[in-house]
Design a protein that fits this description.
Strand order of the largest sheet: 1-4-5-2-3
Number of helices: 3
Structural class: alpha+beta
Radius of gyration: 27 Å
Strand content: 15-25%
Largest sheet: 5 strands, mixed
Order of helices and strands: HEHEEHEE
Length: 126
């Protein structure tokens, strides 16, 4: 009998702790959402917004940005001035030699189903 009562009390205490933890989690979620909203609103009110691209033409990138794209995660193969870099390639020393200082224009190659086949970069000069 004592064992059944102790087991019942453990179950009740466990349920109370579970309910309290869920209330705590939900209240923290609401507080976090309010904090995010406040930060977003203050960023817009301060007018101190920064843009990701220094050039308004998003298809025109610098050689430094191209270095980052080649070394970073590549979802699609990259073609630089006609040389194909596979999306799984890791010969970075050779890839870096392909990139000249200056600006590059970006275009995309598509297959028949309009899926991206490769991202093409063409040197425009300095």
């Amino acid at each position: 009998m004592k064992h059944n009562v102790a087991h019942g009390l453990e179950m009740i205490i466990g349920a109370i702790i579970f309910v309290l933890s869920m209330v705590f989690l939900l209240s923290n979620e609401r507080i976090l959402n309010r904090l995010i909203t406040t930060v977003n609103n203050s960023a817009v009110d301060d007018e101190d917004l920064y843009q990701q691209y220094s050039n308004p033409d998003k298809n025109l990138i610098t050689s430094e940005e191209l270095y980052a794209m080649v070394i970073g995660y590549r979802e699609y193969p990259i073609m630089i001035n006609g040389f194909l870099i596979d999306s799984n390639g890791t010969e970075y020393e050779n890839y870096i030699l392909l990139i000249k200082n200056g600006d590059y224009s970006r275009s995309y190659s598509y297959d028949l189903e309009r899926n991206i086949r490769s991202v093409n970069y063409t040197y425009n000069g300095t």
